[in-house]
Amino acid sequence: MLEAVRLVQPQSARAQLVQKSALVVGLGIGTTPSALIAHGIATTVVEIDPVVYGFATQHFNLPINHTSVIEDAVAYVDRNRRKKEYDYIIHDVFTGGAEPIDLFSVEFLQGLKDMLTQEGVIAINYAGDLRLRSASMVVRTVLSVFETCRLFREEAEAPEESETDFTNLVLFCRKVAGSFSFRQPTREDFLGSQARQHHLLPRYEVDKQYFTKRYGKDVITKRKSQGLEKAQYQSALGHWKVMRSVLPDAVWENW
């Protein structure tokens, strides 16, 4: 779903003709940057862990025609927020139940906003239990920085009687005010992938008030992050419970 940044309808005809560029914060196995590169987008990947980058290139076919930066994303953004601009920014730093708190702070998100072109789009992935305080804090923080956002979950909401509602939530935001929509994807957008045919176009939109009306009004800043640190503990336990339903305990214990 993160790749749907390409599907956001531009506000001007001129924006459709410009060579696009993208910044990807957090690599994983490289699925999203690989797709952006395949679509001809000049892509920069910022990944703090050289081992992750090595695995993505050696074992998951991350194309070589991109710019790689092995560095803390906070330092990269601080150094370049007034120097570089991108049409698309992908923020995807999930680490297994908890996220690097600095990368969800007002200060860091403001830096990313500064690096967006006027019609640029950012997609921010949050993976966790959407019923918990940590999810509301992250969403409120993002909405405090970006004027226009739409929120989509990866799948339909879990039944009320379920213990958790763990899923991926992607926030698509622009730096300027005004509504936006997604164009219908074409065969070329799917890159021959059946998974993209099912998941590329965002489907399950969430009302922002689901998060903004819960758990107070706190936002995450560099100086005020203890609330999220405590809230993430419960989310992390929920994540590992989900993972143990996917593979046996022994697999994770050995890993």
Question: How would you characterize the overall build of this protein?
Answer:
The two termini are 28 Å apart. Strand 1, helix 2 and strand 2 (42-47) form a beta-alpha-beta unit. It is globular and about 50 Å long. It is built from eleven helices and eight strands. By secondary structure, the chain is of the alpha/beta class. Helices cover 37% and strands 21% of the residues.
Provide the fold topology.
Blueprint: H1 13-17, E1 21-25, H2 31-38, E2 42-47, H3 50-59, E3 67-70, H4 73-80, E4 86-91, H5 106-114, E5 116-129, H6 133-145, E6 148-153, E7 166-174, H7 187-190, H8 194-199, E8 204-206, H9 209-212, H10 226-246, H11 249-254
Parallel strand pairs: 1-2, 1-4, 2-3, 4-5
Antiparallel strand pairs: 5-7, 6-7, 6-8
Helix pairs in contact: 5-6, 6-10
Keywords:
alpha/beta, 255 residues, eight-stranded mixed beta sheet
- Average pLDDT confidence is 89
Strand portion: 15-25%
Terminal CA distance: 28 Å
Shape: globular
The assigned structural class equals alpha/beta
Helix share, percent: 25-40%
Number of strands: 8
Adjacency order of strands in the biggest sheet: 3-2-1-4-5-7-6-8
Number of helices: 11
What is Rg? 18 Å
The SSE string, one letter per element, is HEHEHEHEHEHEEHHEHHH
**Assembly classification:** single chain
Question: pLDDT below 50 for ≥5 consecutive residues: which ranges?
Answer: none
The largest sheet is: 8 strands, mixed
Compact description:
35% of the residues are buried. The protein has 255 residues and is of the alpha/beta class. It is globular and about 50 Å long.
